[in-house]
Amino acid sequence: MYVSPFKGDPQRPKVPMSKALAVRKKFHPRLKCLSDVFIRYGLKEFNGEEIFESFVDDEWLSTKFMSYFVACLSHEGAGYRVFLSPEIREYVNIEEDEDFSQWDSPPALAILQHDIEHVGPTKVKLFFLHVMEEDYYSVYCINFIHDRIDVLDSSPEDHTIYHNVLGDRIIRRLNLLFQLAMDYRVKQFN
To answer: What is the set of domains in the chain, with CATH numbers?
Structure first.
């Protein structure tokens, strides 16, 4: 597993205050639009209140919004960059006290098969899976060309130990899922 040395600037660009206030005002708690649905994808919906709450200072982005963001990006990959469903991470990142040889997750396999059914899996350059652990997001890039997983981590802090522990748990499971989904036609990644 390779943890990218890329470190993003922890200082986000400043949003013009007038624009930020205009968006906040649109979803002000006293307005009746809080119950109106503004975003709908699949079976998920976002009403005004959920959008308003996403602008609260010093709060993390909800997993629901992150899943929506990934769904939006998933159509941009042109078959070469595939964003895996967020549900897969729930299965591969589950902490269990059982031996790895006993780990079995038919639902995760079904989700992966659905994710790759319309792409040529052997032609995909990168499969992306965003992983959340302890309220912290990383992006795991499954790179079959180089037989490895690259981890994109923009935190200014060193999370090497964190990624080693997390990687030990999920990489073997991802390997197994891809082997099963592709009938063992791909090399295992490290």
So the answer is: 13-59 (no CATH), 61-190 (3.40.395.10)
